[in-house]
Specification:
Layout: H1 2-21, H2 24-49, H3 60-80, H4 87-92, H5 97-101, H6 107-113, H7 119-137, H8 144-169, H9 172-175, H10 179-187, H11 201-210, H12 218-224, H13 231-234, H14 237-257
Helix pairs in contact: 2-7, 3-7, 3-8, 3-12, 8-10, 8-14
Amino acid sequence: MLKRYAKLYYIFAKNHIKVMMEYRVDFFIGVISVMLQQFASIFFVKVVFDHIEQINGWSFYEILFIYGIAATGRSLHHIFFDNLWTLGWQYVRPGQLDRLLIRPINPLFHVCADRLQQDGLGQLAIGIIILASAFLHLDLAFGMFEWVMLVIMIISSGLIYIAINLFFATFSFWMIDSLPVVYAVFNLSEFAKYPLTIYNKTIRIFLTWVIPYGFTAFYPAAWFLDRTGYGYVGVVSPLIGVGAIAIAYIFWLFGLKAYASTGT
């Protein structure tokens, strides 16, 4: 089963890349624009730190480390699962989901495999550059275990982004188009690029246990940076990622049962 879906995804991806390469200028503009957007955010943070040494006990490169994990994890969602944004207006509203339901493959797989988002490659590149820059300025002793954990933390970060997007995109089965809700919730992820300790307690609790964006970057980074009081929470980030995906997928299956074709 896994081998079959891997082969199918390869076919979908290859065909989509061929289409993208027909418009190479658009492809590179998309990648570069995302990189510039991320650079602009980092530049803003750098301007702030040109006037102060720390924000609530966090140095510039520690925040950069958090930002890098967030950007790299989010890129996994951006590249492979960005099509979830279109579930309502592209599949549910015009009844195009019917076409997927009669095919002998998982409809969620089909939705996600329908498009690769090249813009995410720019985000991935920036995330890696930011992490490398932060690592060079932080006193972090990384062995094989730490490098493996970093990869696991980034993957779990991506899983949480995917799970949250999938969960709220599923509301399209009742709302026809849940894009405004998905957009509003996903914008909250901007808070997760910075230490949660700079926010008040209500926001910290909300971004930890209600919509767990805190586990996409802050808590994993706190574990690597050995931040007392937060590191032990960061180590459960992979479990949060797997649990979030499981809950989102169960909710997707529940929503799929409620789906009724809307036609055009």
